[in-house]
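Lab meeting, item 3. Inverse folding demo.
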């Protein structure tokens, strides 16, 4: 199983990353890692 973002959701996600990076360098990167990690767990264990 795989995933993809709806184009509008991907745009919003990228804006959130930029916003967090402006608050503190590296924070946007950490945010992106957590979101992708959560999505990956959902893909691996869809019934969890």
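The presenter then showed the designed sequence:
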């Amino acid at each position: 199983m795989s995933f993809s973002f709806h184009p509008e959701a991907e745009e919003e996600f990228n804006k959130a990353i930029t916003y967090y990076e402006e608050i503190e360098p590296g924070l946007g990167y950490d945010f992106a890692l957590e979101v992708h990690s959560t999505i990956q767990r959902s893909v691996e264990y869809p019934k969890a």
